[in-house]
Amino acid sequence: TRAPPREIVFDNSLLSTEPYPSDLPRVATPPRTLTLDKYPFPGVEDYEENPEYDQIPVIKQNAKSPSPPIGDGGAGLTPAQEVIHLRRQLAKLNRRVMALELENLNRLQKEKIVVGFGIAYFLL
């Protein structure tokens, strides 16, 4: 008779043959729809306000700040001005992406040349 390979015997010794071992708890499947009215759910008013956090200002500085909006954050712009502003931002973004793609292509070309020289050096 042929015995199964050692790897399979080892796996079978580690893995259980029962699909649901009796020592582990069974978990019910989640419901198809989630309803908040059946269970208590904390609202905004349930949280306590901590006055210490209100007194300490939190200042975060990003490495790249977003482009400043025109005027009052764009609140006083007409729809035509907003479209022009968004087109300008899109053009700037497009230029950045094109520059990154060009830089990536140049880097890949340089890497191909260096790898080629490296392989040629080790073969000769």
Write the layout of secondary structure elements.
Blueprint: H1 6-14, H2 51-55, H3 79-123
Commentary on this structure:
The protein has 124 residues and is mainly α. The protein has a domain of 48 residues.
Give me some keywords for this one:
mainly alpha, flat, 124 residues
Strand residue percentage: under 5%
What's the alpha carbon Rg, rounded to whole Å? 31 Å
Shape: flat
Q: Tally the helices: what do you get?
A: 3
Number of strands: 0
Q: Structural class, from secondary structure content?
A: mainly alpha
Distance between the termini: 55 Å
Average pLDDT reading: 77
Largest sheet: none
Summarize the helix and strand pattern as letters.
HHH
- What share of residues is helical? 40-55%
Any low-confidence stretches, pLDDT <50, length ≥5?
none
Gist of the model:
By secondary structure, this protein is mainly alpha-helical. It contains three helices and no strands. The protein has a domain at 77-124.
